[in-house]
Specification:
This protein has about 250 residues and is α/β, with parallel strands linked by helices. The protein has a single domain, classed as Uracil-DNA Glycosylase, subunit E (3-Layer(aba) Sandwich), CATH 3.40.470.10. About 40% of the residues lie in helices and about 10% in strands. The chain has nine helices and six strands, in the order H-H-E-E-H-H-E-H-E-H-H-E-E-H-H. A six-stranded mixed β-sheet has the order 1-3-2-4-6-5, with helices on both faces. The chain is globular and about 45 Å long.
């Protein structure tokens, strides 16, 4: 379809007027001789900085030299369809530490606040950690997915694959001594475990020379509080393993 140049010019001028431009210099006049009417009523604000969509963001994760550059790269990611429904990406909680917890994916509260484990499950996790002498600001918590799946559904394989380079680089930069997978989806993503959490919890596996264990996800405990003491036992075992490796919490 051929665009009507007169209509295009009219639309363009209408845009200028909406910015506060009342007049423009004629082409035959030098800019310095333009009518004094050519001035915005108020300064035109600079456009708000937004993350440029980047479908290839995961491929750049390995080149990030620190957590902040990795966080910025994650914020641009459009590698899977979750970018269309998220409010924002959710990168981490806490501080780099010898102990790393890995959850499944952000929920509604996390999507709104931009921080992992801040909803009901997060508050329960805080209480569980406190119960065994761990302050949340002394450990690091990440998720397999950096965007919330709609309706908090489980992660899909394509989403996990898209986010995997981010989590891998996150682990490398944090360089923890021990990692605790929270729930079966995190355990599967980290070590490929497809069995029951009951069979896995309390045991240890090696992942790139780092020790990995798993326990029930706090959201599971909200439904099955009878396993709360089991999780506390697992957390005490995590501390003992970290201590045996010479790890000290910051």
């Amino acid at each position: 379809m051929t665009t009507d140049p007169r209509k295009a010019l009219k639309d363009h001028l209408a845009d200028w007027k909406s910015w506060g431009v009342d007049a423009v210099p004629r082409a035959s006049e030098p800019a310095s001789a333009a009518t004094t009417d050519f001035a915005p009523a108020a300064p035109v604000p600079a456009p708000t900085a937004v993350a440029t969509p980047n479908a290839s963001a995961p491929s750049g994760a390995a080149s990030c030299t620190d957590l902040e550059s990795l966080r910025a790269l994650v914020a641009t990611c459009t590698a899977c369809t979750l970018c269309k429904t998220r409010t924002q990406t959710v990168f981490c909680s806490g501080n780099p530490s010898p102990i790393l917890f890995v959850g499944e994916a952000p929920g509604a509260d996390e999507d709104a606040k931009g921080e992992v484990f801040v909803g009901r499950a997060g508050k329960l996790l805080t209480e569980l950690l406190k119960g065994v002498g761990i302050s949340r600001d002394r450990i690091y918590i990440a998720n397999v997915l950096k965007c919330r799946p709609p309706d908090n559904r489980p992660p899909e394989p394509a989403e996990v694959a898209a986010c995997a380079p981010f989590l891998k680089r996150q682990i490398e930069l944090i360089n923890p001594k021990v990692i605790c997978a929270l729930g079966k989806h995190a355990a599967f993503s980290l070590i490929g475990w497809e069995g029951s959490m009951k069979a896995l919890r309390g045991s240890w596996r090696l992942l790139d020379n780092r020790w990995v264990t798993a326990t029930y996800h706090p959201s599971y405990l909200l439904r099955s509080p009878g396993d709360t003491e089991t999780v506390k036992t697992d957390l005490r075992g995590l501390l003992e393993k970290a201590a045996s490796l010479g790890a000290r919490l910051p």
